[in-house]
């Protein structure tokens, strides 16, 4: 069974940093592209960042470009999102999601909540 | 970026009814569109991909159609577990974008 388990969320002040992690199991992690998708409270879904299976191809939403960095450690089956210069509008539930082929999100974690507030 | 507009925002229906949800793209996405279902407190679940293909384990009462800019998700007969929010999502162009959602609620 495919499982994705996010961690690392919490309360942080504006301008602060957080590092999210997502541990994958039940599948060959290195052969799948992965993404972070966020959902602000009571709002819709936003694709934040994408990384290819080998870690070389990455994409970012304009709203986070230059502030967030996606990475992965295939030896540990773990996906990361380094979030710097956090803003109030980054407050959201952050989901880790697996990209199938074709690239849609076929498995999701339960999310980790990031709250940016003073 | 490609904007996806879903309609209506909310549908109030009874179990057994047929449901048709709409998603319109601001520019063509070919057939590169998916539908997801999200229930309160849960992550989204992939229902349909590439406009008309059911994802693994999705019941046959869910079907999708469309091409270019206009897409439809149909639920042939609503089951109690189908009351949820439905999102469309395109992969035709980065950034991948979602619609704002349609809530299907019990009448």
Overall outline of chain A: globular
Oligomeric state of the chains present here: heterodimer
**Beta-strand segment tally of chain A:** 11
Largest sheet of chain A: 7 strands, mixed
- End-to-end separation of chain B in angstroms reads 35 Å
In helices, the fraction of residues of chain B equals under 10%
Task: Write a concise keyword list for the protein shown above.
heterodimer; A: 118 residues; mainly beta; four-stranded antiparallel β-sheet; 11 strands; 52% strand; B: 107 residues; globular
Topology (SSEs and partners):
The complex is a heterodimer of chains A (118) and B (107).
Chain A: E1 3-7, E2 10-12, E3 18-25, E4 34-39, E5 45-51, E6 58-60, E7 68-73, E8 78-83, E9 92-99, E10 105-108, E11 112-116
Parallel strand pairs in A: 2-11
Antiparallel strand pairs in A: 1-3, 3-8, 4-5, 4-9, 5-6, 7-8, 9-10, 9-11
Chain B: E1 4-7, E2 10-13, E3 19-25, E4 33-38, E5 45-49, E6 53-54, E7 62-67, E8 70-75, E9 84-90, E10 97-98, E11 102-106
Parallel strand pairs in B: 2-11
Antiparallel strand pairs in B: 1-3, 3-8, 4-5, 4-9, 5-6, 7-8, 9-10, 9-11
Can you give a write-up of this model?
By secondary structure, chain A is mostly beta strands. Chain A has strands spanning 3-7, 10-12, 18-25, 34-39, 45-51, 58-60, 68-73, 78-83, 92-99, 105-108, 112-116. By secondary structure, chain B is mainly beta. Chain B has strands at 4-7, 10-13, 19-25, 33-38, 45-49, 53-54, 62-67, 70-75, 84-90, 97-98, 102-106. The chains are: A mainly beta (118), B mainly beta (107). The interface between A and B is medium-sized, with 19 and 24 residues.
